[in-house]
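Backbones bend. Our protein:
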Amino acid sequence: MDLSSSISTVRRHTSKIAPLASAPVLFLLLSSLASTAEAYDPLDPNGNITIKWDVMQWTPDGYVAVVTMFNFQQYRHIQAPGWMLGWTWAKKEVIWSMVGGQTTEQGDCSRFKGNIPHCCKKDPSVVDLLPGTPYNMQIANCCKGGVISSWVQDPANAASSFQISVGAAGTTNKTVRVPKNFTLKSPGPGYTCGAAKIVKPSRFVSQDGRRTTQALMTWNITCTYSQFLAQKTPTCCVSLSSFYNDTIVNCPTCSCGCQNNITQPGSCVEGDSPYLASAINGPGKSSFTPLVQCTSHMCPIRVHWHIKLNYKEYWRVKIAITNFNYRMNYTQWNLVIQHPNFDNLTQIFSFNYNSLTPYGGINDTAMLWGIKYYNDLLMQAGPYGNVQSELLFRKDPSTFTFQKGWAFPRRIYFNGDNCVMPPPDAYPRLPNNSPQLKGSLFLPVIILWATLTWLLIYVQ
């Protein structure tokens, strides 16, 4: 199956929007959008995960399908322990076998004699297979432990697939019933999936480009992400500093919740605690429950923006990302930063860079991520739990200024989640200008200095 042709087909189907029939329909649509406004991302307004279900062949009691998840989000990815896809069968379907994935439970298959299905649950949940799976159990884009890269960061790995053989189902386009109630976990909540919609069958082009085949039947499911649904509190915060001010603006207090060991014992651990090792390996170590270092902000991730140097035509920024989570390594991490001077970015050190243009031709948003095999893995809290880089910007004389917080970012995302920024009135301020001599006083001073110089020379 050609991934690029499949992606273009899915994009064509998902880009079709039915025209609104009347004003009441428009009102209802706007009302529904208002109730789900937290799911809209202004920096990635078209981002979603599209699930494509392609029926490839009929069987005596059902069909064989290939299910593919395409991550069309520019910077939000699904990290370990990976995705989990669920749905509810419309009739009494069963899963006879799977390739490239498996269900988490078999369910009650007692009504079957002889061959036992892979899964008999009414609402199965499917996960990806792990790397190293035998080749006879693999298909293309499978077996990555459920990890799906973001579209910009690694488009070649922005899809995940599995093959499923369905029984006790229809055997024609008119008798097959589309599953309902799709859910996608990544691995926790956050995604909301719409209803499956039957679309034009997918087309596949052979590697030599000389033959085109198509699915017997295709339906799409679109899932969108909401940070509000994913977690009750934010997951990251931002601190600021500059060379022209001694003030270091820390993350706001309780940025990621006000839990502490007094009200919630075991919610955090001191960095020098003798019980640190036992806390890391204690209860919850296998459930990816965060165990953060005790700080005023209580965030697993802190991003620090430091204005480092000021040249005649350039200025320099240092970015440091610190992991305070003792149980989490962040693989394929990324930052999204909104700043008006990214249009004049000259050089970046030790990070990858890609420009994002959510507002058409305005180039004020950038995506940064680590270099593979160098700093693409942000280690858990400790001496190696940080990565850093520097950015060199060219000054635009018509717009550049250090005043009023212009040199600080407007917004920062870490792994697709919006980080808590300090309040604007707390930003490091420029020092007051030194008093200058007015022109009316400056001339007498020069005359006096010249006179004294002449007298000294004359006396000698």
User: Anything to note?
Assistant: The chain has two domains: 3-17+37-229, 232-426. Helices lie at 3-14, 23-35, 227-230, 276-280, 439-459.
